[in-house]
Amino acid sequence: VCYFNFDRAVICMAVFTVALGIGTVVGLLPEVPNKNYPYAWGVCGRALWTPVFVVLLLYGRELPFAACSGPAVFLDKTCIHQEDKDIMKQSIERLGAFLSHSDRMLIVYSDVFLQKLWTVYEVAAFLSLHASDRMTVIPVICPAVFFIALLLGWVRNILILVVNIFFASNVLLYVFTTISSCFLLRSLRRWARDRDAIGTRLQNFTVRRCMCTCEEDRPVVYRNIAALMRETLPHMVLTDDDEALEAFDALVRTDLPLAFSSSLGKTFMPYKYVAAFFASTELPCMLDLLVGTPGGMPIRDTVRWVLYYLPLALSIYPLALISTERMTRCFLHLRGWRELVWVLVGFVLLVALPTYFVVGVILAILWRMALESDIAMLLLAVIDIFLLLAAFVVFAEPCRWRRRATDDDVAANIVGSSTRAEAEARA
Prior knowledge:
Layout: H1 2-25, E1 31-32, E2 41-42, H2 44-59, H3 76-79, H4 85-93, H5 95-100, E3 105-109, H6 117-129, E4 135-139, H7 141-166, H8 171-203, H9 218-232, H10 241-264, H11 271-289, H12 299-328, H13 336-369, H14 374-395, H15 407-426
Parallel strand pairs: 3-4
Antiparallel strand pairs: 1-2
């Protein structure tokens, strides 16, 4: 749902943000005193931004003001008849036609995806008909982490509001941020292991070991696979279905590792999702600060706040996230307390301290100086532009892999598989 509603939700949130900003500036929205700042703060940005964004993500297609036609989706579990066996058999035999007429394939990946006969066949068939850049892989853990992170970010903003109204200390906020960071580290470490296991599963893949919920479907799938191999590799002589299944194993080992690697990309989430999450934590704070404008806050002060918050949402925190993900992919062989020490120490030294140096030292100093110095304001803007370009470069994906396995690739893989099998038999 979020995959298809995301762009629509972002457009609606842009309109909502502008409306909220205008309402804040003209003084239509409530405000509260701030013990740590001379001007009052708003409350609507922190209170409403994330809940409205979540509602648009989940139900944007059903809302009248946001509804519009979307892509037609073929979901085999709902589009193939599950009760009438004759209709089900006919649909299964024509599954290749659905794959041929599909523009894109969206895979919600879990650790059993590559162990199921139907799913592996569908992916291999799709890649034999389309380039790999038409396949999108979303780990099943990704939306869960995204929504939990949105919830934690919203709670953090409420805590910021409460702390600045009633307290002068930020200890409670630091404790909550630490807990949230531990959740992030655990999730990224788990995904790093799952991602590493994908290559192992594909290298050792054999179609005969795949699970099939209904064993009656296995002969049907095998026949479809044999037909697919004869159509895909017309120059190879496949005398029987067993040779076709071996060719399919080789095709999976040759094509799918590169296809999955390029589809998963360099990061846990694409940049637009990462930026949307951090925007949900930082933009509401910036909007609530605009309450001080009708109360006498200088325009210059407003500009420096904007130059402070924008890089946090669009570059600094996304870069910190990708650094954290790269760090959690290292030393996957560690277990127990050794793994805990590496993850915590690595996060502090490689992510937390550099981020604090950029935000708490460089940006903070320039932010304070920018209230009176034009040079500091200019430097702040230049650093923002540099950080934004750095985020685009780091998150930019290389050209997606488009090559399909040739007959020689498959034949070499079949020979290699036979050699490994003979070696294992001798052992």
